[in-house]
Automatic annotation (TrEMBL):
Pfam families: DUF34_NIF3 (PF01784). It comes from Fictibacillus barbaricus. InterPro entries: DUF34/NIF3 (IPR002678), DUF34/NIF3_sf (IPR036069). Keywords: Metal-binding. Transmembrane segments: none annotated. This is GTP cyclohydrolase 1 type 2 homolog. It comes from the Bacteria.
Amino acid sequence: MKTSEFEGLMPQLFGEWLKEFKDDGEYGFTYRVEKEIKKIAYATNLTPETVYKANEYGVDLLITHHDAWDFIYGMREVCVTELEKHQISHYFTHLPLDFVEFGTCTALFERLRIDEITSLSTFQDEREIPGIGIYYTALSFSELKERLETVLDEPVMAWQNHQRQVKKIAILTGAGNNSALIKYAKEQDCDAFITGERTLYTVQYAKFAGINLYVGSHTYTEIFGVENFVKKVQEAYPDFEIFPIKEDHIESF
Protein backbone atom coordinates (compact mmCIF):
# COMPACT_ATOMS: atom_id res chain seq x y z
CA MET A 1 0.00 0.00 0.00
CA LYS A 2 1.32 3.40 -0.96
CA THR A 3 0.55 6.62 0.88
CA SER A 4 -1.66 7.78 -1.99
CA GLU A 5 -3.62 4.51 -1.85
CA PHE A 6 -4.16 4.93 1.89
CA GLU A 7 -5.37 8.50 1.30
CA GLY A 8 -7.71 7.31 -1.45
CA LEU A 9 -9.30 4.83 0.94
CA MET A 10 -10.49 7.50 3.38
CA PRO A 11 -13.65 8.55 1.47
CA GLN A 12 -14.68 4.88 1.29
CA LEU A 13 -14.27 4.43 5.04
CA PHE A 14 -15.64 7.74 6.32
CA GLY A 15 -18.01 8.82 3.57
CA GLU A 16 -20.20 11.78 4.45
CA TRP A 17 -18.31 12.47 7.67
CA LEU A 18 -15.35 13.74 5.66
CA LYS A 19 -17.65 16.20 3.90
CA GLU A 20 -19.28 17.19 7.21
CA PHE A 21 -15.96 18.26 8.71
CA LYS A 22 -14.08 19.17 5.52
CA ASP A 23 -13.18 22.70 6.57
CA ASP A 24 -12.82 22.17 10.32
CA GLY A 25 -9.31 20.74 10.58
CA GLU A 26 -10.71 17.50 11.99
CA TYR A 27 -8.71 15.07 9.86
CA GLY A 28 -5.78 14.83 7.49
CA PHE A 29 -2.02 14.47 7.27
CA THR A 30 0.14 16.34 9.75
CA TYR A 31 3.17 15.21 7.74
CA ARG A 32 3.02 13.24 4.50
CA VAL A 33 5.64 11.14 2.70
CA GLU A 34 4.74 9.35 -0.51
CA LYS A 35 6.19 5.89 0.01
CA GLU A 36 5.34 2.22 0.31
CA ILE A 37 3.67 1.59 3.65
CA LYS A 38 4.81 -1.69 5.17
CA LYS A 39 4.37 -0.88 8.86
CA ILE A 40 1.67 1.16 10.63
CA ALA A 41 1.60 2.22 14.28
CA TYR A 42 -1.44 3.66 16.01
CA ALA A 43 -2.29 5.57 19.19
CA THR A 44 -4.91 7.99 20.43
CA ASN A 45 -2.60 11.01 20.61
CA LEU A 46 0.06 12.61 18.47
CA THR A 47 2.83 13.50 20.91
CA PRO A 48 6.64 13.47 20.73
CA GLU A 49 6.48 10.21 22.69
CA THR A 50 4.20 8.45 20.19
CA VAL A 51 6.42 9.61 17.33
CA TYR A 52 9.52 8.31 19.12
CA LYS A 53 7.84 4.94 19.67
CA ALA A 54 6.67 4.82 16.05
CA ASN A 55 10.27 5.36 14.96
CA GLU A 56 11.45 2.57 17.27
CA TYR A 57 9.07 0.23 15.44
CA GLY A 58 10.39 1.47 12.10
CA VAL A 59 6.93 2.35 10.80
CA ASP A 60 6.06 4.22 7.64
CA LEU A 61 2.74 5.64 8.88
CA LEU A 62 1.49 6.70 12.30
CA ILE A 63 -2.30 6.89 12.70
CA THR A 64 -3.89 8.71 15.64
CA HIS A 65 -7.28 10.00 16.69
CA HIS A 66 -5.95 13.40 17.78
CA ASP A 67 -3.64 15.86 16.14
CA ALA A 68 -1.21 17.77 18.36
CA TRP A 69 -3.66 20.62 18.81
CA ASP A 70 -2.51 24.24 18.63
CA PHE A 71 -3.50 24.90 22.25
CA ILE A 72 -0.84 22.40 23.37
CA TYR A 73 1.61 25.16 22.57
CA GLY A 74 4.67 24.18 20.56
CA MET A 75 4.08 20.43 20.64
CA ARG A 76 2.88 20.12 17.07
CA GLU A 77 6.05 21.74 15.75
CA VAL A 78 8.21 19.25 17.66
CA CYS A 79 6.14 16.34 16.34
CA VAL A 80 6.40 17.52 12.75
CA THR A 81 10.17 17.96 13.11
CA GLU A 82 10.51 14.38 14.36
CA LEU A 83 8.17 12.98 11.70
CA GLU A 84 10.18 14.73 9.00
CA LYS A 85 13.47 13.58 10.53
CA HIS A 86 12.40 9.93 10.43
CA GLN A 87 10.28 10.21 7.26
CA ILE A 88 7.14 8.93 8.95
CA SER A 89 3.77 10.02 7.62
CA HIS A 90 1.14 10.92 10.19
CA TYR A 91 -2.61 10.86 9.63
CA PHE A 92 -5.30 11.70 12.17
CA THR A 93 -9.06 11.60 12.07
CA HIS A 94 -10.92 13.18 14.95
CA LEU A 95 -14.66 13.83 14.68
CA PRO A 96 -15.15 11.57 11.63
CA LEU A 97 -13.85 8.66 13.72
CA ASP A 98 -16.12 9.58 16.62
CA PHE A 99 -19.24 9.28 14.50
CA VAL A 100 -18.53 6.72 11.77
CA GLU A 101 -20.29 3.41 12.43
CA PHE A 102 -17.08 1.59 13.45
CA GLY A 103 -15.81 4.55 15.47
CA THR A 104 -14.86 5.32 19.04
CA CYS A 105 -18.21 4.92 20.80
CA THR A 106 -19.15 1.80 18.86
CA ALA A 107 -15.73 0.30 19.56
CA LEU A 108 -16.06 0.84 23.31
CA PHE A 109 -19.55 -0.67 23.30
CA GLU A 110 -18.10 -3.70 21.54
CA ARG A 111 -15.27 -4.10 24.07
CA LEU A 112 -17.79 -3.83 26.90
CA ARG A 113 -19.75 -6.69 25.31
CA ILE A 114 -22.97 -4.73 24.94
CA ASP A 115 -25.80 -6.89 23.62
CA GLU A 116 -27.36 -4.31 21.30
CA ILE A 117 -26.40 -0.83 20.12
CA THR A 118 -29.75 0.88 19.64
CA SER A 119 -28.37 4.15 18.29
CA LEU A 120 -24.92 5.22 17.14
CA SER A 121 -23.17 8.33 18.37
CA THR A 122 -23.68 11.13 15.88
CA PHE A 123 -23.42 14.86 15.21
CA GLN A 124 -26.62 16.79 14.55
CA ASP A 125 -27.48 20.49 14.67
CA GLU A 126 -23.90 21.37 15.68
CA ARG A 127 -23.94 19.10 18.70
CA GLU A 128 -22.61 15.70 19.66
CA ILE A 129 -25.07 12.96 20.55
CA PRO A 130 -24.02 9.89 22.57
CA GLY A 131 -24.45 6.35 21.36
CA ILE A 132 -26.88 4.13 23.31
CA GLY A 133 -26.75 0.41 23.99
CA ILE A 134 -28.59 -2.22 26.01
CA TYR A 135 -27.55 -5.20 28.09
CA TYR A 136 -30.21 -7.90 27.96
CA THR A 137 -29.06 -9.08 31.37
CA ALA A 138 -28.58 -6.16 33.72
CA LEU A 139 -25.28 -5.46 35.48
CA SER A 140 -24.82 -4.01 38.93
CA PHE A 141 -23.15 -0.64 39.36
CA SER A 142 -19.91 -2.31 40.46
CA GLU A 143 -20.00 -4.99 37.73
CA LEU A 144 -20.05 -2.34 35.00
CA LYS A 145 -17.25 -0.43 36.74
CA GLU A 146 -15.11 -3.56 36.94
CA ARG A 147 -15.80 -4.42 33.32
CA LEU A 148 -14.84 -0.92 32.20
CA GLU A 149 -11.64 -0.96 34.27
CA THR A 150 -10.68 -4.31 32.77
CA VAL A 151 -11.26 -3.08 29.23
CA LEU A 152 -9.43 0.23 29.71
CA ASP A 153 -6.73 -1.30 31.93
CA GLU A 154 -6.87 1.71 34.23
CA PRO A 155 -8.82 3.05 37.24
CA VAL A 156 -12.28 4.42 36.51
CA MET A 157 -14.06 7.06 38.56
CA ALA A 158 -17.69 6.17 39.15
CA TRP A 159 -20.65 7.72 40.93
CA GLN A 160 -23.69 5.62 41.85
CA ASN A 161 -26.71 7.89 41.70
CA HIS A 162 -29.56 5.34 41.88
CA GLN A 163 -30.16 1.80 43.10
CA ARG A 164 -31.39 0.23 39.85
CA GLN A 165 -29.47 -2.38 37.91
CA VAL A 166 -27.77 -1.09 34.76
CA LYS A 167 -29.31 -2.17 31.47
CA LYS A 168 -29.30 0.87 29.19
CA ILE A 169 -26.16 2.97 28.85
CA ALA A 170 -25.04 5.98 26.86
CA ILE A 171 -21.44 6.52 25.76
CA LEU A 172 -19.63 9.53 24.40
CA THR A 173 -15.93 8.77 24.48
CA GLY A 174 -13.26 11.38 25.16
CA ALA A 175 -14.38 14.79 26.35
CA GLY A 176 -18.01 13.98 27.07
CA ASN A 177 -17.99 16.36 30.02
CA ASN A 178 -20.96 18.48 28.98
CA SER A 179 -24.02 18.17 31.22
CA ALA A 180 -26.22 18.40 28.10
CA LEU A 181 -24.92 14.96 27.09
CA ILE A 182 -26.03 13.50 30.41
CA LYS A 183 -29.39 15.24 30.02
CA TYR A 184 -29.80 13.52 26.65
CA ALA A 185 -28.91 10.16 28.21
CA LYS A 186 -31.45 10.77 30.98
CA GLU A 187 -34.14 11.65 28.44
CA GLN A 188 -33.45 8.33 26.71
CA ASP A 189 -34.02 6.51 30.03
CA CYS A 190 -30.40 5.41 30.34
CA ASP A 191 -29.19 4.01 33.63
CA ALA A 192 -25.58 5.05 33.08
CA PHE A 193 -23.38 7.44 31.13
CA ILE A 194 -19.76 6.61 30.23
CA THR A 195 -17.18 9.10 29.05
CA GLY A 196 -13.50 10.06 29.27
CA GLU A 197 -13.54 13.41 31.09
CA ARG A 198 -15.59 15.13 33.78
CA THR A 199 -16.05 18.48 35.44
CA LEU A 200 -17.69 19.56 38.67
CA TYR A 201 -20.89 20.19 36.72
CA THR A 202 -20.85 16.75 35.10
CA VAL A 203 -20.77 15.15 38.53
CA GLN A 204 -23.35 17.53 39.98
CA TYR A 205 -25.82 17.04 37.16
CA ALA A 206 -25.46 13.25 37.08
CA LYS A 207 -26.29 13.18 40.79
CA PHE A 208 -29.23 15.55 40.32
CA ALA A 209 -30.54 13.60 37.32
CA GLY A 210 -30.15 10.24 39.04
CA ILE A 211 -27.95 8.58 36.43
CA ASN A 212 -24.79 6.60 37.17
CA LEU A 213 -21.62 8.22 35.88
CA TYR A 214 -18.44 6.41 34.83
CA VAL A 215 -15.33 8.31 33.78
CA GLY A 216 -12.24 6.65 32.34
CA SER A 217 -9.50 8.53 30.52
CA HIS A 218 -9.87 10.49 27.31
CA THR A 219 -7.02 8.49 25.79
CA TYR A 220 -8.19 4.98 26.60
CA THR A 221 -11.92 5.41 26.04
CA GLU A 222 -11.03 6.28 22.43
CA ILE A 223 -8.16 3.94 21.52
CA PHE A 224 -10.42 1.11 20.34
CA GLY A 225 -11.90 3.31 17.62
CA VAL A 226 -8.39 3.87 16.26
CA GLU A 227 -7.80 0.13 16.37
CA ASN A 228 -11.02 -0.46 14.41
CA PHE A 229 -9.89 2.12 11.85
CA VAL A 230 -6.52 0.42 11.32
CA LYS A 231 -8.22 -2.96 10.94
CA LYS A 232 -10.51 -1.48 8.27
CA VAL A 233 -7.44 -0.29 6.37
CA GLN A 234 -5.90 -3.76 6.69
CA GLU A 235 -9.03 -5.36 5.25
CA ALA A 236 -8.46 -3.35 2.08
CA TYR A 237 -4.66 -3.68 2.05
CA PRO A 238 -3.60 -6.74 4.07
CA ASP A 239 0.15 -6.61 3.49
CA PHE A 240 1.40 -4.42 6.32
CA GLU A 241 2.32 -4.94 9.96
CA ILE A 242 0.44 -3.23 12.80
CA PHE A 243 2.09 -1.87 15.94
CA PRO A 244 -0.18 -0.59 18.75
CA ILE A 245 1.54 2.10 20.80
CA LYS A 246 0.97 1.82 24.54
CA GLU A 247 0.57 5.35 25.85
CA ASP A 248 1.14 6.25 29.49
CA HIS A 249 -1.96 6.48 31.67
CA ILE A 250 -1.19 10.10 32.52
CA GLU A 251 -4.87 10.88 33.18
CA SER A 252 -5.36 8.12 35.76
CA PHE A 253 -6.65 9.18 39.14
